[in-house]
Design goal:
With about 375 residues, the protein is α/β, with parallel strands linked by helices. The chain has helices spanning about 30-35, 85-90, 130-145, 160-170, 250-265, 270-280, 300-310, 325-335, 355-365, and strands at about 45-50, 60-65, 110-115, 115-120, 125, 145-150, 175-180, 195-200, 220-225, 225-230, 245, 320-325, 335, 355, 365-370. The protein has a seven-stranded parallel beta sheet with strand order 2-3-1-6-7-8-9, with helices on both faces. Strands 4-5 form a two-stranded antiparallel sheet. A two-stranded antiparallel ribbon has the order 10-11. Helix 4 (about 160-170) links the parallel strand 6 (about 145-150) and strand 7. Helix 3 (about 130-145) runs parallel beside helix 4 (about 160-170) and helix 6 (about 270-280) crosses helix 7. The radius of gyration is 21 Å and the shape is globular. It starts with about 30 loop residues before the first helix and ends with a strand.
């Protein structure tokens, strides 16, 4: 189904899940990103949901955990726990296995934290406790997880959950959540937290999907309509078979989380704030110029995000492995205004010129690169 995965590579095709042809190149440029990295298996993505089928043949994952007390081991427990498996496929459906589809970060792995119990009506409703989310984040933290995704929303708020999101973000974990499917300017909780990146859904022409929420605090937008992804296998899941056509900000969010995983796969030393900055600077601007509350910083782009990753030792201007006299001489040789933005490697403070502040930054990092 790769040919139908317009969010990864849009040729203007009319794929298996689409109602019409999309706009060519309105996508995340995933194949270009995969020429650099498909993701690092040591950069797992936490899927906080109703469980991910643990033995799905087309999802790259590590063993999950159930935080509801029902003992599901991270997998679905009841017949209506169908939401998490399609979400996970958007991140890490396996590449080059001649099977099904592919996620945006197929070399990364997902870790399922079952923190929602689907109601037996199978109408998309569920029950949960905030403490389950807190425990899931603590579990992920202990495993060294760097990226999380929550494609659900709560009807209330929790200071304990907010504190855990804040603490883990400050310690290097970057969080994503779906903005909601109410066609509303009010982003749902926890996506509306300042510590969580709220994601809106786009169609295959780059328009805001008609169901998608938007509004103040929106971070990014990503494919969320006519998405081909993994379903629970066989007679389980939303449809008969192993794959499903899905829609919702629930799928835009894990696509964005997968892009973050690719960024960290290139440079794992980045903290959450660095990753967010990389994604902001690399997203394709849509709508009003610059940030807006319809598309956020824009359409996440996997390839451009990788290109924006700063080198691990930017002060090593001669690529020798340490910062020394040659680097200082290079800096002094480019003293003054930069010819153009982005074409001035010694402009460490980003003010458009090489000067005293840049020299002090270089001197402050003198010696071997970390």
């Amino acid at each position: 189904f790769f040919g139908s995965a317009w969010g990864l590579h849009n040729t203007g095709q009319n794929g298996a899940c689409q109602n019409g042809a999309g706009t060519p190149d309105m996508d995340m440029d995933a194949p270009k990103a995969w020429d650099v990295t498909t993701g690092d298996p040591n950069i797992p993505v936490l899927i906080m949901d109703t469980g991910v089928q643990q033995n799905h043949p087309d999802i790259n994952q590590i063993a999950g955990e159930d935080f509801t007390g029902q003992g599901g081991g991270g997998g679905p427990v009841n017949e209506c726990d169908n939401h998490g498996t399609p979400v996970a496929g958007c991140v890490s459906s396996i590449i080059d296995n001649n099977l099904g589809t592919v996620g945006v970060a197929p070399g990364s792995r997902v870790a399922s934290a079952r923190i929602f119990i689907s109601n037996n009506s199978c109408n998309g409703s569920w029950s949960a406790q905030f403490s389950w989310g807190v425990d899931a984040l603590a579990w992920a933290e202990a495993m060294g997880v760097r990226v999380t995704n929550n494609s659900n929303y709560y009807g209330g708020t929790s200071s304990a959950l907010e504190d855990k999101y804040d603490q883990t973000r400050n310690n290097g974990m970057i969080h994503f959540a779906s903005a909601g499917n109410n066609s509303s300017s009010n982003i749902t909780y926890p996506a509306n937290l300042s510590t969580v990146n709220a994601i809106a859904a786009l169609d295959d022409d780059g328009n805001l999907a008609p169901f998608s929420n938007w509004g103040t605090g929106l971070a990014f937008s990503a494919p969320g309509l006519d998405i081909v992804t993994t379903d629970r296998t066989g007679s389980d899941g939303w449809v008969e078979g192993d794959y499903v056509c899905a829609w919702g900000t629930s799928f835009a969010s894990p696509y964005s989380a997968g892009v973050a995983a690719l960024v960290l796969s290139v440079e794992s030393s980045l903290d959450a704030f660095d990753v967010e900055q990389v994604m902001q600077e690399s997203s394709v601007d849509l709508g009003a110029p610059g940030y807006d509350t319809i598309f956020g910083w824009g359409f996440v782009n996997a390839h451009q995000a990788i290109l924006e990753v700063p080198p691990p030792c930017p002060w090593d201007l001669d690529d020798s492995g340490d910062v020394g006299v040659k680097d200082m001489l290079f800096l002094l040789g480019t003293w003054g205004p930069c010819p153009k933005k982005g074409d001035c490697p010694a402009d460490f403070d980003g003010d458009g010129s090489v000067g005293v502040k840049d020299l002090l930054i270089l001197l402050g990092n003198w010696g071997p690169c970390p």
